[in-house]
Amino acid sequence: MAPVSLRGLGKSYDGQEAVRGIDLEIAEHEFVVLVGPSGCGKSTTLRMIAGLETISSGELRIGDRVVNALPPGERDVAMVFQNYALYPHMTVGQNIAFGLRRRNLSRQQVREAVADAARLLEIEPLLKRRPGALSGGQRQRVAMGRAIVRRPKVFLFDEPLSNLDARLRTQMRTEIKRLHQEVPTTTIYVTHDQVEAMTMADRVVVMKDGAIEQVGPPLEVYRNPRTRFVAEFIGSPAMNFFDGRLVAEGDGLAFRMDAGPALTIPPERRAAYGPIVGEKLTLGLRPEALAIVPRGETPHLAATTRLVEPLGVETLVYFDAPGASGCARLSPDRAPRAGEPIALGLDPAMMHLIRPDTGAVVPWN
Amino acid sequence: MNKLSGAALRQSPTRRASPLSGPLPWLLPVLLMIGVFYLYPILDALRLAFTNASLIGREETYTTRSILAMLANPALGTVLRNTAVFTGASVIGQVLLGLAIALLVVRGERNRLPGMLALRTIVLTAWVIPGVANGIIWSMLFNEAPYGAINSALRLLDIPPVAWLSNPANAMISTIIANVWQGTAFSMIVLYAAIKSIDPVLYEAAAVDGARPWERLWFITLPQLRAALIVNAILVTIQTLNTFDAIISLTGGGPGRATEVLSLFTYNTVFYSYDLAGGSALSMLMLLISLGLACVYALFLPRPEAIR
Fold it and tell me: From the UniProt record, which GO molecular function terms apply (chain A) (predicted)?
């Protein structure tokens, strides 16, 4: 177990920069999730930490050692691959033992360690089977067993759940969290699924185009995204955006949508927003910041229901409004029918103002 | 689920009614081809072995005397020993050398070394050369006259000339070298394809597990190649057992019987001694040896579960 520190880490292929300037300090025992769309460099970053890709620039430390030049086997990391990468010709037991045998442990020690790992992952009955005879979920457990058994300094997970069906994915998600609680080890987990990132991480690292967009605890990133990209990527369904302008209104401020109502800015944000009065901005509101209000109440957004998705505990209502379309998260008993006109109230306390040119969210707190 | 639908299909009356139902019509073309071009000649050779047939057409009568005479032939022991040495050494040499070159080429390609395609092509050209031409090429290389290529190269290094072909002990080694040179390309291509199909992630997993390069070869590459190695060994063995064109043009089986293998002995029996019945008996023996060896190899094929 050790902290991991990435300082200005970069990777380029034939002059093409795939990853650049990654600065990240990962504490001992921390569970960090790298999340982003495909091609954002998250897997490349993970593979650089594992030693499977050479590091083009920057410095990587595991514990107090710079490991840039060390081969993977000497970095004391364990990795769970997307397609598990189990050795097909070995039994489950041999698969789990393989890494230990390379480290010159005695047969007795290896046998005990394998048995411990198998017990922890509840795969004892499978030890004599070969990977070909296992289900996807069982292979996943074996791959994790192979990682855990070595008690490495760092666990690396490369989209380990993406080959599983939805139910198994949820189950393994909690399983991985449970394991991390039982065997607290520094963990770096790569996924494109923001739900996995939100549910598992101590800290989320949102990446885009080879660079870090934002780092923080999941709820912090959810509540205070620093860019439009993060606001859009984290949270499902995605945030709604409305174009408009910030204007002075009486002794306060208001956001006037290009096609829609004006939204009074809460008093605590006035100071922060003061300097940008008059500018064209984009308003970001999460689906839960929208609610159906009586038609007479002002201000409201007049919209038409396009699609209704009842999920049981809540109902997602996709709507078309003048100049924008979006999604509202409503309680099931308040949900309209498709095609029905609705009046949507907007909660200014949950608003984000985004500069359309840079995509940066205007900070206020 | 699968079992259920399979049973349902088998019981389906509409499938029964079709005139093309059952496997036989689909297998018929293959059965015909094999029957005419393989099975009939084999059966005829088997029949001939039990006659006193000769190439100078005299009346055939059925007898076991030809087989017994052939089995009692004092040359047979030498020929079988030659065959075993020639085949064994050739198979081992071709498989090992083919594997080594395939590993080199794959490694070179992975490191984007230039010239890998050229290397592959050069190795393959040896394989395209007909056996007789191969024999002639090597007889020039091994030539013991002062202009013989290898010996004149050795002379430049102040090494005395070697009696490549005239010394019975060397002749077998020379024949094996010539045969391995030609046959290696086949193993190389088979194993190259097999190595390329190994999931590269396995090597990454092994690297993270701390396996050193030779451990990756031993614990990942070789087990993953097991099926390819065995199939390759079967094919190379059968090819080598049947090789006589290269030998006939290189040494003609000599000096004495030093390089006379079973296929050449069979050829000589039929076409020099006109003993069609004895040759047929020998060809049956060859068939039995090939089948026996193939069965032994097949025992070592991995179970399908382990390949997945």
Answer: ABC-type transporter activity; ATP binding; ATP hydrolysis activity
